[in-house]
Protein: Prephenate dehydrogenase
Amino acid sequence: MATLPLKETVLVSDTGSTKATIMALAKQLPFDFIGGHPMAGSHKSGVKAGNPYLFEEAYYIVTDDCQSERTEELIALLRPTRAKFVRLTAKDHDEIVGVLSHLPHIVASGLVQISEQLNQKYPRASQLAAGGFRDITRIASSDPQMWTDILMTNQEMMIQLMEDWQGAMETLKQELIDQNQSAIQEFFVQAKQTRDQLPRKKQGAIPAFYDLYVDIPDIAGAVAKVTNVLSQANLSIINLSIQETREDIFGVLELSFKNQADLLKGQKLIEAEKFHCWIRS
Structure:
């Protein structure tokens, strides 16, 4: 863009997931540049995954390391998205999203790779992974090229975070070797307390998932009945799958909605048809 004949008043921004690299480059550009990172998205991509309400109530981080006086101008331009704007330096941004988004993607992908090795030894393991394991590793389905780029442009921070993570795991490993039950329990207690204090169903660094689980009896037409009631209410489902973790008369239908409002409306409609359903916290 630096070689294009742009107007002197042009204002450029981006929506990338890392900021230090691009903000360093921006200082050399002949136009005003303000970094941006809307904390909203999906593990899906492409035109069909589009959502006009994607940024609504989501945090939109603005990085203005170039000391531009036009930050308010950019925010005014983006205000119709109904996002919540937060200003951070590029370094602070990359450290925060490194912990809350980038490292979890690495951990999730690593867990999936370990499970694949397990599948080679125990073919039935993939069935058992259809429930909670599939949920906690869902972000591993994100675009591999995008995540390669994210790590390469946040290299220094990610190396440090990975070392911190490995250190924490080594400490836990040693406590297990030493059979230090109280220390191990404290590890989980602290994790539970921190996790329980996190905001519920707020847009954050990792895309939120609005999933509903429905017990489906093994009778003809049960799944069709659920999807028909949602269709009649003009509720869109962005993903549908049947979990294979049960071998009794009930299966579990997993429905993914676009937002929290659709999720709650869908739950009410399905329960009105006498199906049992629930939302994982």
Observations:
- The chain has three domains: 11-88, 94-197, 210-278.
- The CA atoms of residues 36 and 144 lie 22 Å apart.
